[in-house]
Known about the structure:
By secondary structure, the chain is an alpha+beta fold. About 35% of the residues lie in helices and about 20% in strands.
Amino acid sequence: MVLEIHVEDYLVKRIEELGGITAKMTIKGRAGWPDRLVALDGELILVELKRPRGGRLSDVQRALHRKLGSIGVHVLVIRSKEDVDRFFPPLWKTIEHV
């Protein structure tokens, strides 16, 4: 069974292979923030990781992701290693963010 931590480990490895960096995000007192900050190709992308089956965004996460998107911040929800491969290298630049 693939767990969220397996996808996260794969994301970190893939970003490093592409010459980027990533950091785990913890913001005290602010619920809903994405799990990781990715710096790649001159861009900063926030990444929310969810387990492949049954991982759901909370209402707080959904609202914050919409707010961040409305001010031009890229937020991706990644659920699998295949998602990582699809979005990085930077296919994420071609998708519309909510």
